[in-house]
Every structure is written in structure tokens, then in C-alpha cells.
Amino acid sequence: MKQRVEKLRKKMSENGWKGVFIYSPENRYYFSGYKGSAGALLIEEDSQKLFTDFRYVDQAKDQAPDYEVIQHQQNLIEMVCESFSSNKKGTLALELGDVPASVYLEIQTILPEAELVDVTSATNEIRMIKDEKEIENMRQGIEICDQAFTHILDFIRPGITEKDIGLELEIFMKRQGAERIKPNHVIASGPRSCLPHGQATDRVIEVGDFVKMDYGAIVNGYFSDFTRTVVVGEPSDKQVEIYNIVRRAQEESLKAIGPGKTCRELDEVGRGIIREAGYGDNFGHSLGHSLGLAIHEQPAMRATDETVLQEGMVITVEPGIYIPGFGGVRIEDLVVITNDGHVNFTKSTKDLQVISY
């Protein structure tokens, strides 16, 4: 935690900020180790304070020993602002994408002479590079996902529902050690598999269906992300065609990953293959994204992102083709960038799995 705070203090010095106000649960945990559901951080040049209420004081002292823990009995925001030591006139950086408008306006009212700026780009940049412990948490998460895929292949059959599949995955992954499951995991079958983020419904699985499953296990607060698409019964020629195009796009994209490559360049590898196959209009999302304490972090593998991949970044690679009225395919792996390429943590087969019944 000390190294993370020092990186943030370096950003403060470079930008002339007198303090940083951290409100989001992810950044609060990242910079302090505190996991409670209520609280805020105020980091200044020579102090770091954690504000929380009576319920979490002991927990905060245990999890964030480098912080002065302050119990607030009055309004939290008032107490943070009163503790801002720069004569109430300095520049205070805060997460404008996470702080509610009401909180921003309250700070503005209490500190009318302070300059309020956005810290988001700085915290995003710091969080882009994962340390060994973060990477190991995500590796363990994707290992649980791989185990769940093997398990669910024996569970899927005609007559069960998408919700049945989702529930079975959740129970299995928690039994394997996941503390939580990625919210709103995708279980989309038949024509619904054309929905990139189609959540599980009561739709009954039928012979001939694609079943697209996008889920993740959370370990020590860190997300993993996994997608495979299977078919129930023998696939049609078009299903095989679509699947093989997506698989080739994914595998060629993986081959291109390494430090020095830009996100835009990587996106174009997979997108170009799908476009040349005639399905460019059926692939409308980015090739992938970073992840960590949040399921979607920066950078993103998309045409507008010129971020250069660096050692320690963890990203997904998940091309897809989605055809309304027919169905869709997505294949997703989780990889970490290394000094000479990458390591793919996802071990599940990419051969099209045909569910017998």
C-alpha cells in the first residue's frame, strides 16, 4: 500500500495538488487496504487519513495501519473538508466519475476557495500496472472459471433454462473458493446469444442452440473474466463458420500481444479478421479491456485507445460475432503482459464443444 500511496503523491507533486479525496470503494481499498463499505480517504503531502463511522473503526485500524483512522459522527464530507489542511484554498483532486454530484456540490460549498480537479486519470494510470499479488488473485479467479466450464459442460442439456445454468455456475464457483461472482453474468442461448450482454432468463435450452456463457470469479476483490460458446447437438454449417471466424480472430489477436503494442493495433488484428470475413458490422464492441478491482478498467482494446501495452497489465481478448435472429459467438481469455510477450491464464479448450443429450 505504501508504494501505491507514494505513486499517488508523486502525481500530486507533478500536478500541484495539495490533497486527494478518495471516495470510490475500489480506490479506497486499492490505496489503503480497507474493505469496509463506508468511508473516505484524504491523502496529503505529509498525512493520510481514513474517515469512517462507528461500525468500521476497528476494521479500518486493522486493515489500514498506515492511516490515521478518524471516526465521523457528523457529516462525512464536512469532516473531510475541515481536515483539508491547505488553508482551504489549495487544489483538491477527487474522482469526478465516482463522486455523486451532491457530494461535489457539498465540497464546493464548504471549500469555496479550493480548486477542485479530477484525479481519475492519475488513479487509472497507477492501477493499470498490476503487482504480483494482484496478478495471482486474477490467475486464481480464472482457474476457478476454467473448472466451472468443465463442470457446466456436463450440466447443460435440452429442457433446462438459462437461469439454471447461471445458478449452477455460481454455486460451483463459490464452492471452489470464489468470494463473489461477477454481477450480471451472461447466459444467452439460441437467438438470444446475439445479445452481447444478454443476462440469463427463463428461456429453455433447445437442440441446435448456441449457449454463450460470460462469467467471472472474484478472488480477494479482484475480477476474472471468461467467455465460451457451446452448441447443443450437432452444429449447422453456419454455426461452425461463425465459430471458426471468431476463434481465428481471437487466436491471432493473442499472438500479437506484447509490450510496445498499442491497444488500437491489437484491436485491429481481431477486428480485421472478422471484417474481412464479411461480419465487421456484427462485431460492435472493443476487442477487450483491462480489469482488476473493477470488471472494466483502463486501458481498453479499442480503435480509439493509443495506450501502449506494458509489462504487468492484465487484459481480456474477447472478439465476437452477433447476428440478430440467428445467434452469436464470443471467446474470451485473460492474459498478463510480460517483458517478452504475454502469459494466457485461461486454459479451457477453444474447440467447439458439442453438447450431447
UniProtKB/TrEMBL annotation:
Creatinase N-terminal domain: residues covered: 4-129
Gene3D superfamilies for the chain: Creatinase/methionine aminopeptidase superfamily, Creatinase/prolidase N-terminal domain
Residue stretches making up the Peptidase M24 domain: 136-339
A Pfam match: Creatinase_N
Transmembrane segments: none
Domain of life: Bacteria
Species assigned in the record: Cytobacillus firmus
Name used for this protein in its record: Aminopeptidase YpdF
GO MF term list: aminopeptidase activity; metal ion binding; metalloexopeptidase activity
Annotated keywords: Aminopeptidase, Hydrolase, Metal-binding, Protease
